[in-house]
Automatic annotation (TrEMBL):
Domain of life: Bacteria
Protein name as it appears in the record: EamA-like transporter family protein
A GO cellular-component term linked to this record: plasma membrane
Membrane-spanning intervals of the chain: 36-55, 67-87, 93-113, 125-142
Classification via PANTHER family: INNER MEMBRANE PROTEIN YDCZ (PTHR34821:SF2)
Amino acid sequence: MDSLMILFTLLGGIALSAQSSVHATFSRKAGTIETTFLTMLTGLVFLTIIIIFFGQGNVLGILSAPVWQLSAALLGTAFLLLSVIAVPKIGVIAANVAIISGQLASSMIIDHFGWFDSLIIPLDWKRLVALIFMIIAVYFIYKGNKRSNAETIS
């Protein structure tokens, strides 16, 4: 089962990179906010159909959820909008490595303090070094993208 979840996550990462690239191209024609809106609207329609035929949960449970848990929807929308803005300017790989770096940094803080009912996993030097390497990777990827773009233009 764990292998299947890893495969699903890998496929999700592949889909995310493809989505970022398609969004960048589409946003040049339709606009950034409009592209984000279309994605969210399509997701709403798609998930509504899935819930109707396969849903086993309690959709009305949303009404009793604490507000801080509902903020996940706003955070997801902000993530999508910010990635649609970033990818056309810095490229897919730079944007995705920066996204992963941001996820690592915030995850380390969340784990360290046990926020949102998560496990408490103290921040240690190994995790900090990993984050530093990710940030260095973002820098080199971004610089490489700028150099490649400048060479293409000249």
